[in-house]
Amino acid sequence: VMAFSVKDLVRLARDAGAVVELVPQVGDFVAAGDPLFRVHDGTRPLSPQALRGCVAVGAERTLGQDPRFAFRILVDIANKGLSPAVNDPTTAVLALDQIHHLLLCLGRRHLDDGQDHDRDGKLRLVYGTPDWPDYVTLAVSEIRQFGEGSLQVDRRLKAMLGHLTEVLPETRRAPLEQELTLLGSAVERRFRD
Q1: Is 84's pLDDT higher than 90?
Q2: Taking a C-beta distance cutoff of 8 angstroms, is the pair 36, 51 a contact?
Q3: Of residues 8, 91, 85, 94, the one with CA closest to residue 52
Q4: Angle CA(90)–CA(102)–CA(72) in degrees, nearest 5?
């Protein structure tokens, strides 16, 4: 799923007296025959073709409505730098610098709750959207795993997580602190001294 039209889906749901649920998230793979929608509480029929026309499906992810994709690209760059064939922790650290910037910007924003209402305030559209812990896990977990044992990567991860914990609102701290704990355990395993 590359993108979807919130405005058109809300309009269709309102006209049918329904709540439309988009099953996959933007960026998710959808196999032939997988459901795209669930329709709840409709008072009038809703055209499957009209619903399908509100969703762009393609072969590749895009950045337009898929912010996880930006993180995925940077994490993949870091992971490639940490592979034994390349062994370039500096590339991983440079990717972490960009991830740090993205997490900082994202952590200061209100994240989408995956619900849209019509002009009368009635819920009409529900869709999956990543939350803060999803972003933190995506941004950190693989790099922590593949970078385990690299002083440069471990230091940069610790600095990034520590900084974000200090400057972001209290509501953002729990997943950052969890990643710091996991990083501390990994460092203890690799560097007993």
Answers
A1: no
A2: yes
A3: 8
A4: 70
- C-alpha 156/C-alpha 97 separation (Å) is 8
**What average pLDDT does this structure show over 99-107?**
97
3-state helix, strand, coil in the chain (%, to 5): 55, 10, 35
The secondary structure of 111-136 as a DSSP string is PP-SEEE-TTS-EEEEE----HHHHH
Q: What's the token pair of residue 120?
A: 């009368």
Q: What is the mean pLDDT of residues 11-26?
A: 95
On the 0-12 / 13-18 / 19+ scale of CB atoms within 10 A, 91 is middle
Two tokens, residue 124:
């009409």
Angstrom CA distances, 43 to 12, 126, 140, stand at 12, 18, 45
Closest-CA residue to 156 (of 105, 73, 82): 82
Phi, psi of 21 (to 5 degrees): -115, 120
Q: Which two tokens stand for residue 48?
A: 């499957």
Q: What is the pLDDT of residues 120-142, one digit of tens each?
A: 999 999 999 999 999 999 999 99
> pLDDT digit string (tens) for 34-68?
999 999 988 898 999 999 999 999 888 888 788 89
Predicted pLDDT at 53: 94
